[in-house]
Structure formats: C-alpha cells, structure tokens
Design goal:
417 residues, 30% helix, single chain, 23% strand, alpha/beta, D-Amino Acid Oxidase, Chain A, domain 2
Length: 417
C-alpha cells in the first residue's frame, strides 16, 4: 500500500509540474561582494565551495556558473573511479579522492550510487604487460590496491570478454583495482550543491563571467552578465575553458582544450560486472544501472571548445569494443555526447596559485577529472583558504613547468581515464 501511494504521488507531481517538490538548493540574488568566488559550477567547483564552507568556515562564497549546475563536463563523462596511477603525487591525490568517495554519500546525505565494482586495465602484448606490472608494484608501495591477473583470471572476473589467442590484440592479462568503479554524476553534483547551499554558499546559474578586475597585481573583483562582484579571491574551476578564464587576467597557461566523446547503447540485462579499459585498442566500457553500456575512447586530436566530436573516433571505438566483446557487434547505440577537456603537457592537473595575487587555478585534468572530484575540491579549498598548497596539491603547481619536476602520467592516464 505504501509503495503504491508513493508511486501515485510521484506520478501526480510529474503531471502537475513538480509543484510540491522543494528546491534542492537556494536561488539567491547576486550580492555585491563575497569573500571568495568560484568560477564553474561543476563537481570540482561545487566541491571546492563545499569544503571552503565546511572545513574553513568561509560561508560568504559564490559559485558562478554560465550554464546550469552539472551542465558541463560533470554531466558529460563516464563516471569511472580509480586511483591506480604510477607516480607518488598522482597516487596521493587519486587515492585521497577514492577514500572520500567511499563515504561521500553518507556525508552529503545523498545517494551518489557509488559502485566499487572493480576496474580492469588490459594488456595485449608483453611490453604492455611489463609496464602494467610495474605500475602494480608502484601502486602497492603507495597503498593503492592493485593486482595482476593472467588471461584466464581476467575471463573469470569478466566472463563476456574474449581472450581468443588468435585475436588481432589478444588479452594476455590485466591489472585490477577492486575498489575502483563508478558512481552517478548528477547525484554527486546535486549533493554538493545542496550541502554547500545549506551552509550559505550562493549558487548563481545562467551567469557568465565577462571580465576579471585587478589592481596593483591583486584580484579585486569580476564582471558578470548579472552584475559586478567585489572579491579578493577567485578560484577558476572552468574545466575546458580554463585558458579562457585565465586570459582575463593576462595569464597564459600550458594547456590545450580538446573534445572527448562517449556513447551509450541500448539497455541490456546485467552483463559486464566491472569497468574494462584497453589502451591498445583504445576503448573503455562499463554498464550502467539502467543496463546501458557506457563507452568511451580517447580525445579528438584537434583543439576545440566544441561539445561535439568527429565521427572517426566513434567508428574506432566501436571497432575496438567488438575486438574485446564480439557479441556486441549488433548492438545499437542510443546517444552520443562530447565534453571539453583541458590537457597539460604532462597529463597531470594544475592546482596552483598564480602570479596574480588572489587568483587560483584548478584545471588541466585532461580526461581524469571526474575521479578526482572530491580530492580536487578538498585540496583546492585548502589552497584558497590558506594561500599555501598542502602536501597533496604542492606537486601540481605551475612552477613544475619551469623547474622540470613534471608528473608525467601519459601511460597511467590510459585510453582516456
């Protein structure tokens, strides 16, 4: 009786235009001044605002979003979570993210649908196997759970996968991170937005930043389509448009923006129990709770700010998918989308102060941004509040591009995640 009543209420509210539903976060008017302004209302930006309010007591904050909450890369990714990167600095930030993901749903009191289903990174030749085995040992030294599986163990963990030795790219083994997995991107964004708003953070949607004001090398405010704001601190968390925002203060960053595509198939019965990634055939796939296959590949090679990609990338990832799972050769695709990712020279992010006093940059995540969301916000909030990077953020400062102390993660970044 209770479930029928709930279903009836849900249907009634849908037909009435959800008139009885309470908004998840406030829609305040833009104030004339704030202690800090975050540019970008995606997962990283909202997480930054949330941790600034929760851990540093900064409640007079605005998150400025030119579109709608979660309408950028946060709504245009494949939600893969893992931390099995090669270098110490990367392992630290991604493992910190994984630990935060584990309890984030309870902390935000929001079901983010976190699923620790495991992530396989496949090897197709002996050279790739040696590289991945090296990463397993590096992961273990950094406290990241990682193990090596041979081909038969891979098949046992993911039965639909082909391990045919006569294939063009035979599967000879894989790394496995059992604590990796997926979650629900819009739930994460909404959860952060609701929690930040409840602590006093103003979330301003449909508000584009048109200019940044500075005086004597210091940030003093910014111009938006809804009015001017006075503030001493600005955190840029604008994903693929990081370089556009930085240009407003005369800062040229070592990043490029590229489209990144993904596809969703028609729904299937539960079939793939984990996330499968292959660098050699250039594809990755997982299955959503609705039964759809979520399929991605690498970035488009050209520089662009468009949320569309080229058709040859789709063709390639479909061919790659059927290399690993021949049974999917007749599967129909339902929809395709693209995001904009900004890529740094060493395939690692930028979490840094800048030469402009009060202007901070969080960007350059390339294709690995989603998995880092809570740790990125946590470390960036600490940087903005204290004006000093903590141990997690320090390796990702802009200075590394002049000192040469890079965090070169092209290999561990895998095909796209």
């Amino acid at each position: 009786m209770s479930s029928r009543f709930n279903v009836f209420n849900l249907l009634r509210e849908g037909l009435r235009g959800q008139t009885g539903w309470q908004a998840q976060w406030r829609e305040p008017e833009l104030k004339a001044s704030y202690d800090a302004v975050i540019i970008g209302g995606g997962g990283h930006g909202l997480a930054t605002a949330y941790y600034l309010a929760k851990e540093h007591g900064m409640r007079n904050i605005a998150v400025i979003e030119k579109g709608w909450i979660g309408g950028g890369n946060s709504g245009r990714n494949t939600t893969i979570i893992r931390s099995n990167y090669l270098y110490d600095a990367s392992a630290a930030i991604y493992n910190h993210a994984l630990s935060l993901w584990t309890t984030l749903g309870r902390e935000l009191n929001y079901n983010i649908m976190m699923s620790h289903r495991g992530v396989l990174n496949l090897a197709h030749d002996e050279g790739e196997a040696r590289t991945l085995k090296r990463r397993v040992e590096a992961n273990r030294l950094n406290g990241v759970d990682a193990e090596w599986l041979d081909a038969k163990q891979v098949k046992a963990f993911c039965p639909p996968m082909s391990i045919d030795e006569g294939a063009r790219y035979p599967v000879i083994g894989a790394t496995l991170q059992r604590t990796g997995g997926t979650n629900r991107h819009d739930a994460v964004v909404w959860g952060f937005a609701r929690a930040a708003s409840a602590m006093g953070v103003d979330i301003i949607q449909q508000c584009e930043v048109t200019g940044i004001k500075k005086k004597s090398g210091k940030i003093v405010g910014l111009h938006t389509t809804k009015g001017d704001i006075n503030t001493p601190k600005i955190g840029s968390v604008a994903a693929g448009h990081t370089s556009v925002v930085a240009n407003m203060v005369g800062l040229k960053l070592p990043i490029e923006s590229h489209p990144l595509q993904a596809l969703v198939s028609e729904p299937l019965k539960p079939l793939i129990p984990c996330v499968v990634m292959s660098n050699a055939v250039h594809v990755y796939v997982s299955q959503s709770d609705k039964g759809e296959l979520v399929i991605g590949a690498g970035i488009d090679p050209y520089v662009s700010y468009t949320q569309r990609g080229s058709f040859d990338i789709i063709e390639h990832q479909m061919a790659s998918l059927t290399e690993l799972f021949p049974m999917f050769s007749r599967l129909r695709m339902m929809r395709q989308w693209g995001g904009i990712v900004d890529v740094s020279p060493d395939a690692s992010p930028i979490l840094s102060r800048t030469p402009i006093d009060g202007f901070y940059v969080n960007g350059g995540w390339g294709t690995g941004g989603w998995k880092a969301t809570p740790a990125s916000g946590h470390a960036f909030a600490d940087l903005i509040a204290k004006d000093q990077p903590n141990e997690i953020a320090r390796p990702f400062s802009l200075e590394r591009f002049t000192t040469g102390n890079l965090v070169a993660e092209h290999g561990a970044a895998a095909v796209a995640h």
